[in-house]
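Pilot study result, target chain (136 residues):
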Amino acid sequence: MTTTRLFAAVGATVALAFPLALASVDARQMKNASEGVYTAAQATRGSTLYDTSCASCHELSKFKGPEFVKAWTDKPMTELHAAVISMPMDAPGSMKPQEYADIIAYFLSLNGYPAGQAELAGTDAAIKGVKIDVKK
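Predicted structure:
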């Protein structure tokens, strides 16, 4: 095998293995929603935001109970976050990142996920770090 082919083979192996290594690190660092990823005060703010910004178009039943469980359980919070930040329909993404996180906190509280000691930050890193697991 020539040196060029050897480097190409090693490079291809590393390129394939690197994303797998990152995925396993991410999975180990991911926190479950049932571990308390928001605060009660944050959920209260989210409730107010929902009432003023979302309730006129969306029934609350879509975000709690069986519909929520079916749509979001065992999924990364990034999927729920993507849906939430696509609103309001007439101005997607117009709210502050923390306000969207507050609304997600409200949805988690509606579904019996426990509050914790730290707020869910509205950053991409914080949202990516949470999985909506089966509620304990």
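One observation from the pilot: Helices lie at 3-29, 40-53, 66-72, 77-85, 97-110, 124-128. A full batch analysis is planned for the follow-on phase.
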